[in-house]
Amino acid sequence: MPSIHQRQQLQQQHQQHQQHLLSDSYPISPRSSPNWGRSISVFGRTGLFVLLTLVVVLGVVLPGMRAPDGLFGGSKVSVSKWREYTLEEAVPFAAKNGTLIVCAVSQPYLPFLNNWLISISRQNHQDKVLVIAEDYATLYAVNGRWPGHAVLVPPAPDAQVAHKFGSQGFFNFTSRRPRHLLYILELGYNVMYNDVDMVWLADPFPYLQGDHDVYFTDDMTAVKPLNHSHDLPSPGKKGRTYICSCMIFMRPTDGAKLVMEEWIEELQAQPWSNAKKSNDQPAFNWALNRTAAQVDLYLLPQVAFPTGGLYFKNQTWVQETKGLHVIIHNNYITGFEKKIKRFHDFGLWLVDDYALESLLGRI
Fold first, then answer.
1. Whole-model pTM?
2. Cα 304 to Cα 220: distance, rounded to the nearest angstrom
3. Which ranges of the chain does DSSP label H, i.e. alpha helix?
4. Do residues 149 and 96 touch, judged by C-beta distance below 8 A?
5. Which of these, 139, 333, 300, 237, lies nearest to 341 by C-alpha position?
């Protein structure tokens, strides 16, 4: 039997071993606590507290970073789970109070996604955003940092061409939009769609007044009076209106679903070709025009939701209406670098200095 002296030595060695193990597990500033050198028994009060803390840290996800059950685990398992993650699962997960904010993004647009998210976070609506990823790189990039807030609806378009305006890839990218939106409506949720080359300067939801089916913005640059009509504008020279398909809000009504169904049919009837480089906006306008008598439509105020052709090119109007702008769309210009430069010039490129305000961080 060991002597008293030997037992004391063994006990001291055991305590040192336990301390060494815990120091390896928590390498960050172990000496910051004056009690760190005290031994910790796994079955003592302190040991149980440490174990419970580990369980809580590893088993609970903070609000805004939560993910559906079963999506954590090894990296291969997680990747597999995200590939199988469906829109039907993602919508109720991301929606708040029956409302979802949706964008569709391919990998080249990730910086714009982050810029848009920062502006939404400033209005405290980031918790209801769902990113519809148009390639697997985007799906994994978003869910790796913000689990559960990105979903890919197969098949994924070609990521190399999807961002080039006027290309068949761009058409394939945008023509999927009404199908996604219709599915969300059929699940019973309000849905706002935004292009990610937008910036929120204020909260848009107070402007979504009433119980209309579909809310949208005019893409014309001509200045409207502040009290302009909220009816669908009259058709232009091409026999249709010029409504922007990049900012839409819909309630899950039969009228809104009808517009999406008509939009899908119009896109199918006007496929892309080299001779006719189609995009989704004319088809959206035809859908609105053909359903106007059956659907409750609402044109949002121009001063709050100006097109880029007005906001970035008519500084007299911008100064006269200062403080009334809500969402700015960086359209009427093509090319990543040109869009970024214009955002920079107007103080709307936020990712360089405020990336940490986004739930994606510096992506």
1. 0.77
2. 14
3. 4-25, 45-59, 75-84, 87-94, 110-121, 136-145, 168-175, 177-186, 254-269, 280-291, 308-311, 315-320, 336-345, 351-354
4. no
5. 333
Encoded tokens for 81: 């789970």
Q: Report the C-alpha gap between 108 and 118 in whole angstroms.
A: 18
Tens of pLDDT, residues 95-106: 999 999 999 999
DSSP summary character for residue 206: G
- Answer yes or no: are the C-beta atoms of 252 and 293 closer than 8 Å: no
- pLDDT per residue over 292-302, tens digit each? 999 999 999 99
Question: Residues 247, 250, 254, 259: what is their CA dihedral angle, to the nearest 10 degrees?
Answer: 0
C-alpha dihedral sign at 343, 347, 351, 353: positive
- 356: helix, coil or strand? helix
Contacts of 174 (CB under 8 A, 6+ apart): 104, 245, 279, 280
Domains of the chain: 4-59 (no CATH), 75-357 (3.90.550.10)
- Return the DSSP state at 175: H
The pair of three-digit structure tokens given for residue 237, joined into one six-digit string: 């020279």
Tens-digit pLDDT profile for residues 305-334: 999 999 999 999 999 999 999 999 999 999
